[in-house]
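Example (one chain per record):
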Amino acid sequence: MDGPLHIPETGVDTLHGRSVVVSCGSAPRRGQGLAQRLRRMGADVALADVAGVEAARRFAEAYLGGHTALHGLVLVGADCASHFALARLLLDRLCETGSPSYGPGARVVVVAREGRLGRLAIDKLLFAGELHRLLKDASLARRVQCVAALGDAAALHAVAAPDVRGGDCVGPSGLAGRFGPPGPLAFPAAGRSRGSGERAWKRWVDATGLDFGALRQEAERLETGRLEILAGPRRISAMVRARNEQEFLYPAVKSIVDQVDEVLVVDNLSRDGTPEIIRRLAAEHPDKLVALAYPHRIARQGWEQKDAIEGRGALLPAHEYCNWILERCANPFVLKWDADMVALPAFARWLERWRASDKLVMAFRGVNVHPDRSHLLAARCTDRAQLEAQLGRPGLPEWATSLTYDSVEPRLFPLWEARFDGSWGWVEAHVSPFFFGTQRRRTRLTPDDPCFLHMKFCKRDCFAYYTADMAEVIGGNVAVGPEVSDEQRAALRRWGLDARPARVDGAAAARPASLRGAPGVVR
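Predicted structure:
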């Protein structure tokens, strides 16, 4: 099928900055055509014409020696044994070394011919289904997703479209599955049966002499690590980054200090009263509070962060800052807490449930308080694509389409192998082996209730951490939302935050410019 490509209207840069390998197999002309179209969409494409294990090995060695990420692997043609070898060599090595890394949303797309399903097409679907299952069992399905695609247009859709997920099978969505734009198909990518997939997988192992050993070892290592962490103490280090946070830093720390074993408060070149507040907190909690300083300028969320990751300019990327703090945490669990977050009673309740459970991660959200201190925020526009189109470069937090609630985020997690990296580009990405696949389901506790008040939008400079375009988009989307609940009002009152202060630092407390003139209450 060579019809029009149906993906979001994002122009030819849909795959800009992404590295994709296209394996031609027994269909070189078809593979070359797909590679050409992927290049027109902005991808950095490496064409692999491999037949057999040795050819796959040579290509994998050359690719891994010259690339820092793998965002997509497109397998075209009938030779499943060669595809098996190439996928095994690329994915296994990435698991073993951790570098090069999987890019965000990395996908393996197995392309079967469209139309009548002959034996070769069935084999390709079985291959896709078994590979997806293996990645899922190894807790890698979140980082590397395997998709089956029927036809060239479906293959391009599977590589680029944001709504495609691991385990999907996409193809012509029209009459009898032979015409129309790419879309999800009724039958699973796993093919006819689990037994058929396992038998085909054994054939490929026998044909190549290779297996996905490192993937299995990764799964076993994570399970061993999980059990060892569960056997240890549930002591928590809270990490709090602070730059010009005098307005809410004190209640933010006081609201959690009794729930954790250590609080690391890191001042990053503050020019207001933040250092004095940190000294006061250290005097009140000498056995818990650790005061640190990070004397480097940090890039703001947005294009500035991407430039810093790519080494442009003098600013440091935020993920280096976060990893610097992680290295100084003394306890086996870390709580990532912001200097403008104030815990609600629900946080303590759910923390006790987490301590009594077999979960390693607690992923929770908060509510964004409106500057009038009587309402929460609401969003005027909930279309993420429409909001993101107003930015100079892509990248917008999920909560920007809601604004009442923050995104659910794994804020309490094991220190073991936790890190931050720059894979998201516009903001630091939080990475832990327990955030993905089967480990995610096994190790995560997600509270039903909001666990904190986010006072971000009550600050005089509520967009200090964002580039100007992102601040304009988010600020322009703000409206007045529902009234705060009784529990939320009581928490505001407890910390003296229920009324907007008349003056801050001797100056009139101005409502943030981007929030002025907000319309009436949105229900």
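Caption: The first strand starts at residue 19 and ends at 23.
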